[in-house]
Specification:
3-stranded antiparallel beta sheet; single chain; alpha/beta; globular; FAD/NAD(P)-binding domain; 8-stranded mixed beta sheet; binds ligand 48F
């Protein structure tokens, strides 16, 4: 016998358990594209408390559609180690290029990240940051449908030692921080340089090079790094996104003082008990 009210209780209780454990974070990741999911995975693997806030219902960002809706992606050889960490199957194309099925890639990133302990709150838009004592100290969130319906509803706040803008081309978190707090960024001009036209070779290098902290507590990875620092776009080649996600996880971990070994041991014990 199925009791409809029990279903409601189960969902709401379990959701709020998850939500409460996403309110005080080591890292708040904004955007569940490839760079955000990869960063979240490596941080969770190191025992850090990390949640990803994604404005869409689906996670995976720009992976699903491959190039112009042809659902394959290209990855260069220097990112293969990350594909292997996630158990993603790929095929050699030749000349240092590899291809992977876009649906398989997006699914594997989501699966491994959540398995590692990443909390994903989807259909939830980050619309502002918490700002304390000269640093970004968290994010301000609101359900996406509330925003699309134009309802006058106040948002809620999440505290985080570090915030990662992995919102892709829009670099939304950096934009709102600059607009509201008039901060100077760690960029060539101190401002947002804006993304430049397609040039994969240059764009891929720039994304990796510019991954990092742009303001105390605020990091950029993936296309957001290119958009903030004036890098070129690169289309459906994803090695740079993956490497950028792993790089920023290392930087954030270093700023947090390394892996949380107690939490890692807890997680391993839970995994062993499964
Ligand atoms: O765009 P996206 O996939 O970001 P990425 O990790 O990867 C870029 C590539 O997909 C592709 C490319 C590769 O060569 O150029 O574009 O840099 O994912 C960004 C995610 O952030 C979400 C958005 O819905 C998408 O899933 N997002 C954007 N703004 C917000 C947000 C916001 N304010 N709050 C929450 N999520």
């Amino acid at each position: 016998m199925i009791n409809d009210v029990t279903v409601t209780k189960a969902i709401s209780e379990r959701f709020f358990e998850k939500f409460h454990s996403a309110l005080e974070l080591d890292a708040a990741i904004v955007g569940a594209g490839p760079s955000g999911l990869v960063a979240a995975y490596y941080l969770a693997q190191a025992g850090r408390r990390v949640a990803v806030f994604e404005s869409k219902l689906s996670i995976g960002g720009g992976i699903w559609g491959g190039g112009m809706l042809m659902n394959e992606i290209v990855v260069q050889d220097d990112a293969l180690e990350i594909l292997r960490d996630f158990g993603i199957s790929y095929r050699e194309y030749g000349g240092g290029y590899y291809t992977a099925d876009a649906v398989h890639t997006a699914s594997a990133l989501a699966y491994r990240a959540t398995e590692a302990g990443v909390i994903v709150i989807n259909a939830c838009r980050v619309e502002d940051v918490l700002f304390r004592e000269g640093r970004v100290a968290g994010v301000v969130i609101l359900w996406t449908p509330v925003l699309t319906a134009g309802l006058h509803v106040d948002p809620l706040s999440v505290g985080a030692t570090t915030v990662l803008d992995a919102t892709g081309h829009a670099a939304e978190v950096v934009h709102v921080t600059v607009r509201k707090m008039e901060v100077e960024l760690n960029t060539e001009t101190g401002g947002i340089l804006g993304e430049r036209s397609m040039w994969a070779e240059s764009g891929e290098q720039a994304v990796i090079e510019h991954t990092g902290e742009v303001f105390p507590g605020l990091y950029v990875a993936g296309m957001a790094a290119a958009a903030v620092h004036g890098g070129h776009r690169m289309g459906p080649i994803f090695g740079g996104m993956l490497i950028s996600g792993k790089k920023v996880a290392g930087q954030i971990l270093e700023s947090l003082g390394g892996a949380d070994s107690a939490a890692t041991a807890d997680r391993d014990a839970v995994a062993a008990a499964r």
